[in-house]
Each structure stands twice: as structure tokens, then as C-alpha cells.
Amino acid sequence: MNKKLLILSLGLTILAASCSKDNTKKEPVITKLTDLVIPAGFTWQSTRDVNFNISITDTRFQNKSHIVAIYLADPATNPIAIAKGSATYADPFIATLSIPSTINEAYVVKTSPDGSSVMEKLTLTSTKVSAALSSVNKYNNLSLLTADKSLMSTEVEPECGIKTSASTIKLNTSTDVYCFTSTVDLTINVEANNGGTLKINAPGKTITFGDNFNHTGIKVFISKETTVKFNRDLNIKSGEIFSNSGKLLAGNLSSNGSLINNGEATFSGSNFNLNSGSELTNRSAMVIQAQNPGINGVITNTGNITFNSATFNSGSKLDNYCSFTVNNVLTVNTSTFNNYKLVLVKGDTYVNSGGTINLIDGAMHQTLNMSNMNGVVYGRGPAVSLFKTTGTVGDNVVNNSGYFKGALQYCGTRDLEVNQNNKKHFSDGAIKGCGAYIVKDDCNTIGNGVAPVELKPDTDGDGIIDEEDDYPNDKTKAFNNFSVNYHNGGSTIAFEDSWPLLGDYDLNDVVLTYKHLVVTNAKNVAVRIEGKWNLIASGASYKNGAGVQFPLPKGMATNFKASDGVSPEDGQDSLVVILFNNARDQQVLWNTMPNQSLSPIKTFTFSFDLTNGPNFPALGVSAFNPFIFNGTKDAIRGYETHLYGKNPTKLVNKSLFGTSADNSLKGAYYSTKSKLPWGIEIPVATFRYPYEKIGILDSYLKFSNWATSGGSLYTDWYSNTGSDFRDVTKLFPTVGAGN
Questions:
Q1: Exposure winner among 24, 134, 186, 290, fewest CB in 10 A?
Q2: Cis upstream peptide for 500 (omega within 30°)
Q3: How far apart are CA 422 and CA 410, in angstroms?
Q4: pLDDT, tens digit, 9 for 90 and up, residues 301-317
Q5: Separation CA 614–CA 609 (nearest Å)
Q6: β-pairing, 218-222 with 241-244?
């Protein structure tokens, strides 16, 4: 096309960065691209580089390699890792990955040498993310499922209705929702004889319930960082809910309803009664100091709960998925004492007639003493559980009718025979022994035994088990690491070709898609790179060439192989691969005009090995520098156009910097005075670029909002197909990704 030196006038009404309460207020209309006010530091990227530092706390396999894989979606539904590498107890896996700005979470899976794996979901709130992975998932899946199921219908926190800071609060109906706030410590009196909801939010302050607290059917929610004290005993009636996410302090408890603790809770009184029909759910930290609490309800613990003493009566139930501690005596008179993780008794354990301690799938019960056993300790599930005594085992254990059963080891200071004094002490697989391996983690800080070393096969002997090795028969290679959107065609790069002039900003003069594969070895050293580039459109009459610069010394690349015409460029210190020298020789037609036949997509491939290559953390998959160059008439090779802020190659014509619209001498390379770029990269392969002579502002209606917000707003400006995001009449139909 005939290049213009001025930008076409393009209309767009942009949204403000923050919403206005005045819906009639008109936002300014931007008619020129040069009128965009671009924030300092904005680099025109629709992706951001995120540094992952994944360490291993699993000590079971000494210095053997674990495999770390990073996913941008749940591996259960999209099992394609974008990066893989090895880590040991001493050396973490570190990688800098290019992540689309529309994605705010990642999944990390660690696979051990025995093939077992754990997963953690990470929120991508910064450019540096770290995690420490043990031998088990950070959160027990079963505990989360159970907790969610039991509370789904009861723990619903309604929106605020009436806001108040008054010290006297009266809820009149069951539908009243009062939100109490305070900037000072305060004692409040509450009346709610007809129900209703009270939400207390006073961060950093202590709110005390006074003597006048009359209620029936009330629901109380305590917010984070708020301390609530009860002068009187806390009495929770049937149907009532007390949910604490802050700090709850009370003396005695009598509950017929639901007590939920997501924060810290301490009950310092001598009475703690969970009556029949009541529920206690602890997800964080709770301490009960009563000497003889009466437990007739249901306790679900996914956090850390400590009792001074605890008696579980017939009809009561415990589901313990984390740490349950008793400082003195634990008495079990129920058949539904279910331990999935750790019960630690620092005094004596009694299992009376009719009582059963269920240890489920690798759980552990450790007690100082065991004085009486007339009930059953039952190991359930495929993994062996452990019952361990570290002090005395009484005669009433030897002589009574209690016994150990199922997938269980008994480890005691006093020997028990299978049949002793005419009593059966073991049945259905339970045995004496102290070697059961119990994982040590955040919930079970004790653990037991040594992990069995049953390693999966490693055919090539590189330390990476075959099932996680992408090259199981080649010890020089181990892992594949992929550039953005690799498995869906890769990313698009759209250039203006008029540098150092500004151009018309239809961003279709050279449109390329690409994807790169970086192969690393078992030590996370890059050993091979493969690239695939596609010329999608060449909407210009200029003889534009294209290349990509790698942050590698030219001599590091060996065994270079490529499609016709693709080769390393002479005269460069770094590795620069030229894809083509003239787009007009590659595509007869431009693929930018309406109602015009299409030129086929042209594909360019290359691969090379690396000798003494860099560690993957230093290379990453996004440090590559694509560019075009203008070969028309006298322009020749030195007219390079790179993405915003990218360095030129050694062959650039440096005299062009600072001329015409270019501001590279005073600002970032390849930027204008108003911080505009000459090319952008979009993390999809099916980007619909504008028709010839149609500017980006006029076709993508949120582009200006994205740019003026520094990339914080409308991160999906290029992919959202809503009519308020794009004018499809001005966008060229998708040619294809060129897979």
C-alpha cells in the first residue's frame, strides 16, 4: 500500500478507568491514536513474564529428582503442561514463563520418583510466584469436599441491609441483616428474638457482647481481623449459626446449632457442651480448655483443634481431616470417631465398649498412655494406618475385649499377642509393628517411618522416570517447554512497516504467527530449540523481510536445520534466524483486502541444538526478539522494526534512531514520543487484524481503554467477540493459524 506519514483519524469513545456515578456524563472521544495518553512503564504486552520458584519439601527420596509441571488450566480437564523440569530437596525448579494477562492462576504438579504426585493451585497476583510442595496435597481433597457439603446450605452470608455503629442493636424480623462497624473497642447489647443476621466488621477492634444478648434463630458472622468477646456464656440455639473469621473469645459454650470457625477461637470456661443436633466446624485454630466437655453433636475439623479433655458420647461424631489434639484424656464411646490425619493425645486414651476409633487411609493416632480398651481400633482404606503409644499400656488393654482390626499397625511400649489371656487383640490384617510410613506434613507434624523406595523405571538413566520423561530413551533430553498458546497455534505478531515513520496503524503490513519449543535435559539446561513461523498477511508493497533474534551466542547453535530459505544471518554476534527477505516473494496477494482471493499461508521452520546451553531459568520461552526489515530501494537491511522496547540487532542502521517519529534515543527502543509501538504481540494464533486502511482503534473498540490503562483494563480486548469490543465489519476474516 502507499504509506502515509500521518495517522488516519479514527473515532472511539473510551471508557474511563473508574466508573462514574453520573451515568449521563460523556466520556471524551479520541479521534487520533497520537492522542492516547500512555502510562509510563506500559510495554504494550498482552502477556507478562512470571517467575516460578517451586521448591520440594519431600525428603523421602534424598537427592533424587522430582518432576515439576506447570499448567494454565486444571490438569484434570486440560492435561497439557506449558513447562516441565526437575527439582530436588536442595535445588528448586525455576522458570520464567510468558502468561497471557487474561489468566490469573496456574496449577503446579510435582511427581515423585515413585510416580506419586501432588498438585497446588497458585494465584498469579505478582510476577514472582513460589510454592513448596511436600509429599501430599497442601489441602486434603476429602476434607474440602466434606466441609463444603456439610456447610453448603447453612453458611450463606447475606448482603448488608442496615448499617449501624450503635451499641444497642435490635433485629426485628428474620429477614433483617444488620452490618455493625466500629472504629473503637465497644460493648454491644443485641436483641434478636425473631431471628435475623448480624455481621460484625471492626478490623483491629474488640467488640464485646454485653449481658443483654437475647436471641432466637440469629445468625452471627464475624469478619477477618475483628475480635469478638462474650461476657456471658455463648449459647447457640437450634437453627442458629455463629460463623467466625476473626478472633472469638468466650467462656462456656452450650450449642444446639452450628458453630463455624474460620479464624481463631478460644473457649476458656469449665463447660463446653455440644448437644445432640449441634455442629462444630473448625477450619483454622480452636482451643477448648474445659476439663470435661460433653460432646453429643458433630465435629468436622479441617484445621487445628485442641481440647483439654474430650469425651465423645454415643451418638456423637468426629470427622478429623487435619490435627486433633487432646492434652489430657480422650474417651471414645461412639462408633463414628473418624480420623483421616492425626489425633494426638498427650495423656490417656480410653476406648470403651461400643466405641470405635476409625483410622482411615494412612491416618495416625498417637497417645501417651492407653489404660482401657473395650472397643475397636479399625484401620480402613487401602493405606495402612498407625496406632502408637509412647507411654504405658494398662492391664485393661491386655485383659479386656478390645482389639485392633483392618489395615493397621499397633506400635506400643507393651507387647500384645494376637491371642493373649483368651482375648483376641488383632484381626482382619491388623498387626504389631512400628514401621508404617505416615507422611509428615502441615497437619501431621509427627509422621512415622521411612518412605518405601519403589522407584518407577528410568530407561535412559538420566534420573527422570520414564512416565514423566518426554524423551525416555535419550539421556541428553528430558522435557518439552512451550511458548504461549503453543498447542492452539501459538501467538500473533502484527507489524507496521514504516519505521521510523509512523504509518497508518492498521497493523497488517506483516502478520506472523509463531510457536517455539525449548527442550531441556534432566538438569533443566536448554539443549534444543524448535521454531515454526507462519506468514499470514503481507499488507504492504514494501519488500519486507522477517527474522528472530535469540539471546544466545551464534556459536552456541549447532546442527541447524530449516525449511528452504531459512538460515542464520551472517555478521551477527548473537544467533539471528532470517525467515524470509521479501514478503512479496512469499505471498502474491496481501490477505488484507475485502473480497480478494487469499494467498496461502507460508510456513517457515527451523531447529538447532545447543552446545553448553543456558539453564532454562535464564532462557525461558519468551526472551526471543522477532523483527521485520524493509528491503525496498535504498532502505535495505538496516531498517529494522522490533516490538516495543526490544533491542535492535547488530545490523541495524543506528542513524535512523531519533529521526521522524522514533524516540529510541530518549525513551524505549522502537517507541514514539507518545509511547506508541510499531508492532504488538497477541497470545492467540487467530487474531483478526483490521482491513487495509482501517486503524486498530476503529476496529477493536476497547484497544484504547486497554492502552490508556497500562494494560490493566480490558485484557481480553483482542479475544472478546462482543459487539462492544469489536466491529467485525472492519476486521479481516480469520485466515488460519498455520498449524
A1: 24
A2: yes
A3: 19
A4: 999 999 999 999 999 99
A5: 12
A6: parallel
